[in-house]
Amino acid sequence: MWYNFEIFAIISLVTWILAIGASLSDKTGKIANLTAILGTLSLAVFIILLWANLQRPPLRTLGETRLWYSFFLAISGYVIFKRWKIKLMLIYSLGMAILFLLLNYLNPDIHSKTLMPALQSIWFVPHVIVYMIAYALLGLSALFGLQGLYAIRKGNLKEDFVLKTDNIVYIGFGFLTLGLIFGALWAKEAWGHYWTWDPKETWAFLTWAVYLIYIHFRIKSNLSHKSVFLILMLAFVVLLICWFGINYLPAAQNSVHVYSS
Amino acid sequence: MLPWKYPESFLIAFALFLASLGIEFITGTTAPKISWPANFVSIALLANLSLLLYLLSKKRAVFKWFYSVPASIAGITSFVVPSLLLALIPQKPSDSLFFLYDVTSSWTYTIGVVFFLIILGTVTIKRITKLSKRNVGFFLNHFGLWLCIASAHLGAGDIQKLNMYLEEGKTTWYGIENGNRTEELNFAIKLRDFSIEEYPAKIAFVESSTGEIINQNNKPLMIDPHEGLQFNYKDFDFKIDKLLMSSAPVMNRFEPVLGMGATQSLKILKSYNEKVDTIWISSPSILYRQEMHQIDSSTIMLMTKPEAKRFLSEITVYEKAGAVYDTINEVNKPIKIAGWKIYQTSYDETMGRWSTKSILELVKDPWLPSVYWGFFLLIAGTFYLIWTGKRKEDM
Ligand code: HEM
């Protein structure tokens, strides 16, 4: 079944690359829409065929998992793009989707690589995708913070820009919340409890709380724009600690999320 | 006009924090873990307190503070500060300074959460009084979170966890709590068969003098084998000719067998300077010597201990109520028996694939539906948030 993969993958790859190219140039909105949808459809058809052929949901091996990454990344990126006109999100999502397809193409692991039993769960895919989108959006908000600071120095900051920045935080925060909840639901199925204050969970919660505070801080506040942008950049540092730094913290030595060794 | 702003709000949160530390030191106890029905009563009290505060705000402006944004941020902070301790300090139950080493049982944490819930509850009530599309979104997020946190924290005292140690062929009707206390159950389980499916064991290159796995580009030098795989090390070329998942040594080779102690083995063709050797290596086994291969004076090639791909218990359940049935308990696929959720957690790891023991965990969490309702509302609220974003009026 997987040998048909090349055809569908190439359709998706080509159309998505076209979509990225089209969205980079301003005038070709229709082409970007059409190609983004076409590529996603092609992958959807492949997943359906594979599912029918295997007679089980294709969710068992890493290779099968990557198909879903690609698929949902493309969809989410497209929806966010349509709703909020954040082009960078479309480019990022399609870029990541292409990356996962390429990985499957270059390294078709029909046999699954070692994935410990607790990780073989249907929550794996939604949990990871939602976090990838959340991190991308919140990273984007930090970039907006940087750009905002620059605009303040130049004296050409627009009120709309601040609103757009806040909106990106809202959407990113929404995905972050979903990530936490999906993680909790998964933990319940795999380990018997939805929340154990595992170090990674604790840091994920802290990250979430920092953005929660940011959102509420911004309601009818008279905070200067400069501090707003600075806070956003600081919040992203907490996120990065959660993401990378945790492996080096003494409190994290027994975390189920530290996969090294 | 609001009575208090940020400085006052943080002062109040800080005063509560000091008070909780005071309780910690004076009583020298951890916060009590309350269970049914005291926890239910407490939740009802908390909700009513929020309602009362809201009603009082109609009479006196001071009470408006309880649903103000500064109070909310002070409340969130009271919850977050103890979590920060959790994040930084390795937790271990200890008698002294437990508010640092066992944060979740401390007064500081408990009082922080209670303060947080009172504020969040009042905030929620203030906004349900007017029905609009926007307030529905608000309600989903704020009440959803309240429900989650309230039932998760106050319900924690009702969670029951037991372990069940099963042996093949035997029937067990009790669980063990906290490692020693046995508790009779209203059902029994007979373990018919415990089985493990393994991944092919990795090939590793080991330094012969130290026994350590060699690092290459900062990664341990290990390979996932499959038949036909080719790789090289220094000037040697290797090709995997055969991968046997269950085999035993016969003379100087391995043959497929199924019996006790059978192990994974690899037949590898090693070529060097046009010369081809056939070598066999095998995983450690409880019965047979592990075959390794000395590549050169400093390097050994071997097969590591296999990792489990899935493991599961085939069991027969006898419920006191009369039902008898066969089922399977597997990692990530918990089953439900007589009000318990049952997880496959472990087995006799020294025996690996030949383990005849299986360890199950039994969990009873009567507040789970309530927490899940909270999750459900929050998920709906999140979609609202993602779709509507921020409004200009809130700037
Ligand atoms: C899942 C978590 C939360 C989300 C997604 C969230 C989201 C929001 C949003 C989007 C607003 C402004 C929009 C509106 O008024 O409709 C808001 C307002 C507010 N939130 Fe939250 N919030 C959350 C948790 C909390 C918590 C934990 C508290 C308090 C402890 C809180 C207190 C408030 C208050 C006081 C307001 C102002 C409402 C008003 O004055 O009418 N929120 N929240």
Written overview of the protein:
- The complex is a heterodimer of chains A (261) and B (395).
- Chain A contains eight helices and no strands.
- Chain A has 261 residues and is an all-alpha fold.
- Chain B has 395 residues and is α+β, with helices and mostly antiparallel strands.
- Chain B contains seven helices and 19 strands.
- Chain B has helices at residues 6-27, 38-59, 69-88, 98-101, 107-128, 133-155, 368-388, and strands at residues 160-167, 171-177, 181-198, 203-207, 215-216, 219-220, 222-223, 230-233, 236-250, 253-256, 263-272, 275-282, 293-296, 299-303, 308-319, 324-330, 335-337, 340-347, 357-364.
- In chain B, the strands form five sheets. In chain B, strands 8, 9, 10, 11 and 12 form a five-stranded antiparallel β-sheet that branches. In chain B, strands 1-19-18-17 form a four-stranded antiparallel β-sheet, with no helix packed on it. Chain B has a four-stranded antiparallel β-sheet with strand order 2-3-15-16, with no helix packed on it.
- The two termini of chain B are 18 Å apart.
- Classes of the chains: A mainly alpha (261), B alpha+beta (395).
- At the A-B interface, helix 6 and helix 7 of A face helix 3, strand 15, strand 18 and helix 7 of B.
- Bound molecules: protoporphyrin IX containing FE.
- Protoporphyrin IX containing FE sits between chains B (67, 69, 72, 75-76, 116, 119-120, 123, 127, 134, 138, 141-142, 145, 378, 385, 394) and A (177, 212, 215-216, 219).
